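Human: You know discrete backbone vocabularies at least as well as I do. Show me how you would write down a chain together with its backbone fold. No explanation is needed for now; the record alone will do.

Assistant:
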Amino acid sequence: MNCSALSENLLESELFGHVRGSFTGAIRNKVGRFEIADGGTIFLDEIADISPKIQVELLRVLQEKEFERVGDSTTKKVDVRVVTATNQDLSEKVRRGEFREDLYYRLNVMKIELPPLRKRREDIPLLTDYFLEKFNKKFNKEIRAVSDDVKKIFMNYPWPGNVRELEHALEHAFILCRQPVITVDHLPPELMNFNVKEISCRNDGKVNDVQAVIQALEKSAWNKTKAAMLLGISRRSIYRKIKEYNIVQAKTYK
């Protein structure tokens, strides 16, 4: 259940159910997710976004294993394992008074912290293969792989959007690609720019690849300031690189 996708009233109805006539539009009784999940597991995604009212009701389910449907006074008992997820710092929300402390500790029985994608890069090839299979079925295509350049970008890109960003990047590529292999030209702009800006940079931020400098210059039509911005270095540094690598702009004739 995605807790951030619904308003408070709709979420309450989805989780706990409602009886006919309990609110406008309630034309029949509805069984909630907790009742359906009795004896099993319910997964609540984006748990940090639930309102104070839902927090109170969820706390009661966790402590007493009971609830009432919206508009009903009959108490129902359930035995449900609750798994939650969030990309926010719940302990910080507790400190700011935005999340109940007692609910936080009820939920925080077994905590699993999933590192960001940039800290588990060994997963990227596996995820890439998974999304290739997924989107081949979705778009009815037969794209076999991504190019070596794309693999290199994927393994070096910081992925601020984590797995979802990787998924969306490949979906973007599938829309554009008309061949068996995805290349750099099929990637979203931020990854294409990263190919010039970062792919040959070391951890100290210094550009050490002559090809990266040439690509940046060509991409910016030999505008030194723009090329320096693409590479993430100063204008003075790119002049130094041009001199160091003896890079000369090729003359064009009409």
